[in-house]
Specification:
- With 73 residues, the chain is mainly α.
- It is built from five helices and no strands.
- The chain has a single domain, classed as lambda repressor-like DNA-binding domains (434 Repressor (Amino-terminal Domain)), CATH 1.10.260.40.
- α2 packs across α3.
- The longest helix is centred in the N-terminal third of the chain and has 16 residues.
- The model has no long low-confidence stretch (mean pLDDT 93).
């Protein structure tokens, strides 16, 4: 479930920024195969990796992991 949400949010952010999947992986500081693993729900990212993706995308952890946007006014 978490990987599905991560994939959805990451793809939304990638499209919004008009990046290729390779560029998105680079932005997130992960390899392209690992990025595809997230998209295919076969990767097993550590909390450290999830946090780094969240930070680099400027997306709150809650939104990245649960697909829930925060409502901060």
């Amino acid at each position: 479930m978490i990987l599905r949400n991560m994939a959805m949010v990451m793809e939304r952010e990638r499209e919004k920024r008009e990046l290729t999947k390779k560029e998105m992986a680079r932005l997130c500081e992960i390899t392209s195969p690992f990025y595809f693993g997230i998209l295919n729900a076969t990767a097993n990212p550590s909390l450290q990796v999830i946090t780094r993706i969240s930070t680099n995308l400027k997306v709150p952890l809650q939104e990245l992991m649960m697909g829930i946007k925060s409502s901060d006014g």
